[in-house]
Amino acid sequence: MPITTEDTVNWLRQLAQVLHENRDYLTQLDSPIGDADHGINMDRGFKAVMDKLPSVANMDIGSILKTVGTTLVSTVGGASGPLYGTAFLRAGMATAGKNELDEADYIAMLEAALEGIKARGKAQPGEKTMLDALTPALEAAKAAQAQGLELPQMMRRASDAAEAGMKATIPMLATKGRASYLGERSIGHQDPGATSSWFILKTLTDTCT
Fold first, then answer.
1. What DSSP line would sit under 81-120, residue for residue?
2. Taking CA atoms, which of 88, 122, 148, 155 is between 20 and 30 Å from 80?
3. With the C-alpha atoms ordered 42, 47, 50, 52, is the resulting torsion angle positive or negative?
4. What is the pTM of this model?
5. Looking at residue 86, what is its pLDDT?
């Protein structure tokens, strides 16, 4: 059961709704360790994506994801705009020309997004960032592939791993981004970027399985 172009459009519509509903929650997470604007920024960015979506809904998956990326870069403030923008642009490059995604494509998409964030943010796992949700998600997807699992199971494993990674940011000391300025005071707070990353993967899984 591949991810289709229609699935991709439905995912983005649902994601915009999820981010809107969780706007205050993400901003609350960001208040003690960031600029208290992550939820506001993500909501604004995906509202802009919704405005663009009708014009690209009939294109291939790669083109849709690239449009998401360029829209986020141009409309989302703070660090999350360039980071998520780069992630979606790279994911779009990895899925260029495709109207269906299989297990290998899903992994390639995740890997490209992850490498894009690493390159743009100069971050590594363990620094209390979105990478702490996305890295275990990719590892779980690769493990599922090695076990011969089909795409719906792979996506669920990746989403669950992202959730565990998100929760694992709570006891971490932030060493990257705005939260790193707080030093020891960053411990005990869940990273908002890891949380929005989990929302992205969970919504994709919920929409497509």
1. HHHHHHHHHHHHHHTTT-SEE-HHHHHHHHHHHHHHHHHH
2. 155
3. negative
4. 0.96
5. 97
The 10s digit of each residue's pLDDT in 128-156 is 999 999 999 999 999 999 999 999 999 99
pLDDT at 188 over 80: yes
* Domain of residue 156, residue span: 3-208
Distances (CA, A) of 25 to 48, 52, 86, 157, 164: 20, 26, 24, 24, 18
The DSSP-derived string for 148-170 is T--HHHHHHHHHHHHHHHHHTTT
Contacts of 148 (CB under 8 A, 6+ apart): none
Query: Distance between alpha carbon 95 and the CA centroid of its chain, in Å?
Result: 16
What is the C-alpha to C-alpha distance for residues 182 and 45, in angstroms, rounded to an integer?
A: 27
The packing angle between helices 5-21 and 192-208, to 10°, is 140
For the record, the structure tokens of 145 come out as 């592939």
Instruction: Please determine, for residue 113, whether its predicted confidence score (pLDDT) is greater than 90.
Output: yes
Is residue 65 within 8 Å of residue 91, measured between CB atoms? yes
What is the count of structural domains for the chain?
A: 1
Identity (one letter) of the amino acid at 19?
Answer: L
| Exposure on the CB side of residue 204, measured as CA atoms within 13 A | 28
Buried b (16+ CB within 10 A) or exposed e, 35-46: eebbbbbbbbbb
CATH number at residue 100: 1.25.40.340
Burial of 171 (0-12, 13-18, 19+ CB in 10 A): exposed
